[in-house]
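Memo to structure team: turn this sequence into structure tokens by end of day. - J.P.
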Amino acid sequence: MPRLSLAQVRTQIVACRACPRLVRWREQVAGEKRAAYREDVYWGRPVPGFGDPAARLLVCGLAPGAHGANRTGRVFTGDRTGDYFYGALYRAGFANQPTSRHRDDGLHLTDCYVTGCVRCCPPANRPKPAERDNCLPFLGQELNLLRRLSCIVCLGAFAWDGVLRAVAARHPLPRPRPRFGHGAEAAVGPYLLLGCYHPSQQNTFTGRITTAMFDAVFARARELVQASGTS
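Reply from structure team:
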């Protein structure tokens, strides 16, 4: 069977209707809208990955925001979490601008690809295990196609677990199984995983994660990809 391209994987993701609960919710949110975005046409479909196909860094999050990526159609785009996130990528040299308003706003990533474990926004931001598992083959395909990849930043414990599951489909995991923590590092198959608290508003507003903490993770990711020897 011929290898799919990233573009073909994105097409498959956007067309997916494997999880009835998520399909209902993403379409309900897109139909009802938030008052601030009542004039917007919501994406309302699964959100594919985004970035540089020659990336050495992959950043994996949990799932699209209901009124962020589910509205704009681009991962981590259109809400405060996205601005916080892309601001850090910009400061680390992975993005050409620090904001993420909509999918045609001129944002470009260099040496970085951004994706998620779950591609549809879930109710209460809580995907079910079966929904995660339905999406994992897409993450596995991305890992397979990003051939220069050497470092993966996992935003939150859910993403850490999802990446480990996707990598385990192709490579044996170390024992004991690496545990998530902010700043945790683990060599898993051909990758170096970095753990990072998710930049949700709950975490940023409470100080669980600060700009300095977030920047430090991406500074470390920059060091790792530069030391990877991948040309």
